[in-house]
Amino acid sequence: MKVRAAGLLDLAKIEEMHRSSDIRLSEAAPPAARLWTLLSSTLSALLPLSQETLMFVAEDGGKVIGFIQASGQPLGLDLRRARVLQVLNLQVADGADSDEVAPALVQHLCNQALERGALRLFVRLPDRDALLPAFRTQGFRQYATEQVVYADRPQQRSEQYPDGLRPVKRGDERSLYQLYRKVTPQGVSQLEAPTYREWRALHTGELAGGHVVDRVEVVSWVRMQRGGEARPDTLQFMALPENPLPAELADFGISLLGDSRAPAWSSLRHYDSHMIDALRGRGFTVLLTQLLLVKELAVRVAKPVREKGLVPSFG
Predict the structure, then answer these.
(1) How many other CB atoms are found less than 10 A from the CB of residue 181?
(2) Is 153 helix (H, G, I), strand (E, B) or coil?
């Protein structure tokens, strides 16, 4: 078996493997859970061939038996400038030995990413995914857990909204970054967005249209995004765990849905348990749990501080 860069002649086999995976996942997961994986760069869920990606195939006897795909983060970033990559796909053909093929593909991607100057590789996996060992054996570690909560009909419990609520305005980005640093464990923020510039790049266009709770400092943020067609409405939250803030923010978020007949969902991390509890008390249930893994390919070294040399004194 050898692993090499994918070429145009490989795309038919790659798409065949991807369709086969789509069928298996559609049969195994509820429709809403399957839709979430399609929209969130969950492993084996998306194949954006029109975007710039790294793709490698495993070949045995002239037959393609697996492939792996990664993109710059944010998605679509020029790979020549990408220092952080997101693994989008890892699939092994039916009949091939997954225990042999999958780790070889992951290892090859890591080596190639390192050669290109990447610092970290991220992957999002459904809980108890069969491909989890392929990443574990190559040095990936879990740094966070993500829960997607879902409601067919969200239930607002009160019209008591947080004091200090206002729409997001120009210049709030710095305050929102400070809120992100407060609510996010340091071990997570140092991996995902160690600087304001990196955090802003990851959330470009995401902050507009939201609301903040401003009490001298910003203590929470909420945003509603319409789904359209078969896609549910999305609620996004970031809040300090100070009662009754989570409950009041959840009610305000649900009020933004208005008369929408569409279901709603929200993606929250394990450290957002206060918001998860507030939403579960308003008709939401946990749709699926995903594991967020990372492999650090290179460690950032701070630039040494130049110190003045000691001048010998003769007396």
Answers:
(1) 15
(2) coil
> Quick one: average pLDDT of 2-23?
77
Domain finish residue from 114, 145, 176 = 145
- Span 185-209, pLDDT tens digits: 999 999 998 899 888 888 877 777 8
Distance from C-alpha of 126 to C-alpha of 231, rounded to nearest angstrom:
20
Write out the DSSP string of 104-141: HHHHHHHHHHHHTT--EEEEEEETT-TTHHHHHTTT-E
Indicate if 74 and 170 belong to the same structural domain.
no
DSSP letter at 310 equals P
Burial of 25-63, coded b for 16+ CB within 10 Å and e otherwise, reads beeebeebbbbbbeeebbbbbbbeeeeebbbbbbbeeee
DSSP string, 260-290: --S-EEEEEEGGGHHHHHHHHTTT-EEEEEE
User: In sequence order, what DSSP letters do the residues of 1-32 get, joined into one string?
Assistant: -EEEE--GGGHHHHHHHHHHHHHHHHHHS-HH
Which of 145, 168, 195 terminates a domain? The answer is: 145
Tokens of 100: 């042999």
Q: How far is Cα 28 from Cα 127, in angstroms, rounded to an integer? A: 13
Check if the beta carbon of residue 85 is closer than 8 Å to that of residue 71: yes
Hey, what are 230's tokens?
């078969």
pLDDT band at 12 (very low <50, low <70, confident <90, very high): confident
Question: By the 8 A CB rule, do 221 and 210 touch?
Answer: yes
pLDDT bin (cut points 50, 70, 90) of residue 315 is very low
